Amino acid sequence: MENSSEIVSFVLAAYGNVGDFKYLYFIIILFWYVSICVANTVLIVVIHVDRRLHEPMYILLSNLCVNEIKAGTSLYPLLLSQMFSDSHEVTLPWCFLQMCSLYTGAPAEFWSLAAMAYDRYISICHPLRYNVIMNTERVFKIILLVWVFSFVIFILSFSFIFSLKFCGNNIENVYCEHQLIIKLSCSGSAQNSISIIIFVIMSIFIPFSLISVSYVKILTVCRKTSTENKQKAMTTCTPQIVSVSNLFVGCIFHSINFRLLISQVPDEVNIILPMYMLICQPMLTPFMYGFNLPKIRQSCKRFLFKRK
């Protein structure tokens, strides 16, 4: 066992020996990361440029796109830098920085979707009061609260990791995952269970409950309205429902150890599936909203093809 005072970096052991495939992996990862940044940036710029999209729903959407870029940047640059590394080492400060970025992004994602669900609830259930309740100033306050609360959740859940002393430095993953880091500590991991409970309740359970309540009330109101209003409500709500569903699929993949369920699972599967949320969600958001919301679709066409 190594002396804890000598641990200054972690080794991301899951990379193994990728051999000649590292060039293919590098191209695929780079293409996906650039695609995430471009797709989300285009949506943000379109919303910013088109004054017709300066509405609460689209402002909240642009904030969600910022978080998708942040999520991709939390993971892919490290993957790219490690692809041609021989040692696959990452210093403790950089590892902690990545962990901070990843685990503030998750609550920001869920709480952003909760804010968007609340916006749809007010728009559909209280249309006459919508402009009063969801004014621009309040929307920016909500966005600020989302980010402040995300950092507070991270500090309450995982700040104790920064003071741990480590007796090992091999992380069996391709990025700095908090549970594997805690397993390397010299002290017990009792705090780990408490931190996960706090994180899950504040990052997932509470916002999901708010999202569920919002959509139950929306569905109740929609049952009493005309077919046209039902279709309009479904058009604006469907992307959010798909996003929330996809996030929960990602949470399931992240929490399951597939080696325990299926024998002879390839290492690649056991590495990639827990990262499903970081792979799919950042690309799903701009395409779901870009292609499903008519106003954004039309604005994107004007911005990309008709702008002189």
UniProtKB/TrEMBL annotation:
One of its GO terms (cellular component) is plasma membrane. It is found in: Cell membrane. Residues 39-289 form the G-protein coupled receptors family 1 profile domain. Its main location: membrane. InterPro entries: GPCR1_Superfamily_Member, GPCR_Rhodpsn, GPCR_Rhodpsn_7TM, Olfact_rcpt. Coiled coil: none annotated. One of its GO terms (molecular function) is odorant binding. The chain crosses the membrane at residues 23-47, 139-162, 194-216, 237-256, 271-291. It is a multi-pass membrane protein. SUPFAM superfamilies: Family A G protein-coupled receptor-like. Keywords: Cell membrane, Disulfide bond, G-protein coupled receptor, Glycoprotein, Membrane, Olfaction, Receptor, Sensory transduction, Transducer, Transmembrane, Transmembrane helix. Belongs to the G-protein coupled receptor 1 family. This is Olfactory receptor. It comes from Oreochromis aureus (Israeli tilapia).
